[in-house]
């Protein structure tokens, strides 16, 4: 088997490369080494893979990379919430245009294998909620006025009452609420169109909050776990937004890489969408406290700031039934063990 991994020098992509190469699979990497994620050539690159340093937006580079490929693992993307709306063209170029150029190259090469897309839980917007009066509901975006009043929980859009979060299944409607989320949803739609028109197999993996070694430590686009870890390394407390009660599913990068390996080895027809998560959601404050505890005595406790970002959602955590059924995937690293590992993991 020969697998092309786009973004294979990145945090998740490099772990996918390691998992594939560890099984004796021939791996080709296409990566642009975007400055937002990299400050030069990474030192952890797997020597058993071959590398092409170019952007997925480059048709010539894509045309060369897709030759004689059996599986494509499309990890390349500009990630994170962004700094402000001025980041929009960069997200659209690297995520939407890059995916479009890659798919056009695959079509030209008459690719007939499996396409694995790295998507994200951000496509759901808010997670799944149940109102005791109105049943399943989709809350409206939280308003700046309510957030300033520290009213962080969503409300039922029908009766205005309290709602309870539930694990979100893959069948939930897409409701992207940030530029990054919109580009991930568009990537999914482009890949679905490609699979429908070409008949190739497609697996969409919706990652939840991925953390682990090689995370970018100090970029403006880093994930919350890396931001907290970097603060603690500097002797500063983790600054927790809102009241810290927002619930997420933190999944270790080793588990994400294993899910990609299983998807690459899948021989079923058609296409699938799978949440990739631990199945054990925790609050942001619980995660910050676990990371501080794992960091050792004398580590400052998290500080709850009440700050908020309009693009953030309150609760989103996954149903893992589809990944278990389709891929035979179940996370091996729980939140407690994962945070113990992460406290001393090498970041980028």
Model description:
The protein has helices spanning about 10-20, 60-65, 90-110, 145-150, 180-200, 225-235, 255-265, 285-295, 320-325, 335-340; strands at about 1-5, 25-30, 50-55, 70-75, 115-120, 130, 135, 165, 200-205, 210, 240, 245-250, 250, 270-275, 280-285, 305. Helix content is about 30%, strand content about 20%. The radius of gyration is 20 Å and the shape is globular. It has about 350 residues and is an alpha/beta fold.
Short description:
The protein has 348 residues and is α/β, with parallel strands linked by helices.
Rounded to an integer in angstroms, the radius of gyration calculated over CA atoms is: 20 Å
The unreliable regions are none
The portion of residues forming beta strands comes to 15-25%
* CA-based shape: globular
Q: What is the overall number of helices?
A: 10
Strand order of the largest sheet: 3-2-1-4-5-9-14
Overall pLDDT metric: 94
Terminal CA distance reads 30 Å
């Amino acid at each position: 088997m020969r697998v092309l991994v786009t973004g294979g020098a990145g945090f998740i992509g490099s772990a996918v490369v390691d998992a594939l190469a560890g099984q004796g699979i021939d791996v080709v990497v296409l990566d642009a080494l975007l400055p937002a994620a990299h400050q030069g050539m990474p030192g952890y690159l797997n020597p058993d893979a071959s590398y092409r340093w170019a952007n997925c937006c480059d048709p010539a580079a894509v045309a060369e990379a897709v030759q004689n490929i059996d599986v494509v693992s499309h990890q390349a993307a500009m990630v994170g919430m962004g700094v402000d709306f001025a980041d929009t063209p960069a997200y659209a170029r690297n995520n939407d245009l890059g995916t479009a150029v890659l798919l056009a190259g695959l079509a030209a090469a008459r690719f007939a294998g499996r396409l694995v897309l790295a998507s994200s839980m951000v496509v759901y917007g808010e997670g799944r909620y149940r109102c005791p009066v109105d049943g399943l509901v989709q809350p409206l975006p939280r308003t700046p006025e309510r957030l300033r009043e520290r009213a962080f929980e969503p409300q039922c859009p029908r009766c205005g009452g309290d709602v309870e979060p539930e694990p979100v299944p893959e069948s939930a409607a897409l409701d992207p609420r940030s530029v990054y989320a919109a580009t991930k949803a568009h990537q999914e739609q482009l890949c679905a169109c490609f699979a429908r028109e070409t008949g190739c197999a497609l697996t969409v993996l919706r990652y939840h909050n991925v953390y682990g070694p090689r995370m970018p430590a100090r970029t403006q686009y880093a994930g919350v776990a890396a931001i907290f870890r970097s603060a603690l390394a500097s002797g500063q407390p983790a600054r927790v937004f809102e009241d810290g009660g927002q619930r997420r599913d933190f999944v270790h990068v080793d588990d994400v890489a294993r899910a990609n390996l299983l998807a690459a080895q899948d021989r079923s027809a058609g296409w699938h969408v799978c949440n990739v998560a631990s199945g054990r959601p925790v609050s942001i404050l619980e995660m910050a406290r676990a990371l501080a505890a794992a960091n050792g005595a004398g580590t400052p406790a998290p500080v709850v700031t009440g700050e908020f970002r309009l693009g953030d959602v309150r609760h989103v955590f996954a149903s893992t039934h589809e990944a278990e059924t389709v891929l035979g995937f179940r996370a091996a690293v729980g939140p407690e063990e994962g945070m113990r590992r992460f406290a001393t993991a090498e970041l980028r």
